[in-house]
Amino acid sequence: MILLNPVVISVLVLAILCLLKLPVFAALIIAALTAGLSAGHGFADTMVTFVGGMGGNANTALSYVLLGALAYTINKTGAADILARKIGTMIKGNKFILCIIIILVSMASGTIIPVHIAFIPILIPPLLSLMNKMKMDRRMAAICFGFGLKAPYITIPIAYGAIFHGVIKDSVNAAGLAIESDLIWKTNWMAGIAMFVGLILGLLYYSRDRNYEDVKSHAAGDDLDNGEPIVVETKHWLTLVAGIIALVVQLLTDSLPLGALASLTFLVITRVIRWGEIEEVINGGIGLMGFIAFVMLIASGYANVIIESGAVESLVEAAFSVLGGSKLAGSFVMILLGLLITMGIGTSFGTVPVIAAIYVPLALKLGFSPAAIVFMVAVAAALGDAGSPASDTTLGPTSGLNADGQHDHIWDTCVPQFIFYDIPLMIVGTIWPLFL
């Protein structure tokens, strides 16, 4: 029975515990133990599998810590405060202008200057008091981050998008279907449109005023209205160059940690970071991104438990046994399975190989085209980045918006992103493959 499958049981446990506000890392551990035990494994074996799988996200965790160090340096030079003050002068009390800026900066963080979510706990806290004055519902910002961080890599093969598309190509090819990279971006544009529709609906829904207490946070930085002139110095330009170096090295080496390390090395050579400040910068990076990196490691361990349990394959077989050869039912079930798998793991990149290995042979049997298969794999994997409590697309926004303790991770970030992004993606992921 599908409802008794270990994957389904563990994801339900994870969702319930998170909704009850148990810390995400604790909920993931309990969900992993639930998956292992319900699959017939003992506590000891499950923990061995869990800990052994944590290394799967080691590259991502290291990237976040190093990018956090870069973001800490940007803050230390005052560049983040300058940007925050410029934003403050631009928005003129308009919530939607701030939303547009957040979207553009988020998109840039995954393409032009690949610091990803590391900029959020630096840039957003100084803007909270301004958002409070506008009575801006912070769920609007969470919606903006969801689009800006996620839509570009799904649709555009640049920086993180190039990595995501490369993982899809390699995984689909390994599963027995030969495709070229250009098929991915030529197909995934519909997912971008679905997310754009969700963005508009979400912003309109949360545009009503919401009151927050004007709490002064230790992370909130300087007052945006202090009247001091904005002066751009050489060190600020050098930090911008460092971001570009991170992007170029990443593209040349396919290694995000190496790109971040190269940018930090450049900042040390140019004395933006002095030798005696290196330990402070690294510790600052851990302080900014360490929790998120740790959650990603735990999520990888949870993924390993699910994979080793064999429950994914049995779940797919059980689901497809009732399809009767229907392509519509097939696409719906595949997208639904993708949601179940990725909601617990919380990473679209890491689940692509798992999903592709299952989807490709089954979709070929149902008569789907290569474009349709690529689209379903991409959408099913991407579902884990919006709405999942273990996703960097939700953890990142919360790290900035909750700097003063007034933004709930589950109800103010995960639930809004799930409603306005995962639901539209599930709809197009089910229907659009029928026309490809």
Summary, kept brief:
This protein is mostly helical and 436 residues long.
User: How much is the average pLDDT?
Assistant: 80
End-to-end Cα distance: 32 Å
Percentage beta strand: under 5%
Helicity, as a percent range: over 70%
One letter per element, helices H and strands E, the order comes to HHHHHHHHHHHHHHHHHHHH
Number of strands: 0
Question: What is the CA-atom radius of gyration, in angstroms?
Answer: 22 Å
Tally the helices: what do you get? 20
> What structural class do the secondary elements suggest?
mainly alpha
Number of domains: 1
Using the alpha-carbon principal axes, give the shape: globular
Question: Largest sheet, described in full?
Answer: none
Low-confidence stretches: 218-222
Give an overview of the whole structure:
There is one protein chain. The protein has 436 residues and is mainly alpha-helical. It has one domain. Helices cover 72% and strands 0% of the residues. It contains 20 helices and no strands. It has helices at residues 6-19, 24-38, 43-53, 58-77, 79-91, 95-109, 120-123, 128-133, 138-155, 160-174, 182-205, 234-253, 256-269, 278-309, 311-320, 327-345, 348-366, 370-382, 392-401, 409-431. Helix 4 (58-77) runs antiparallel to helix 14 (278-309), helix 11 crosses helix 18 (370-382) and helix 17 (348-366) packs antiparallel against helix 18 (370-382). The longest helix has 32 residues, at 278-309. It is globular. 54% of the residues are buried. Residues 218-222 have low confidence and may be disordered.
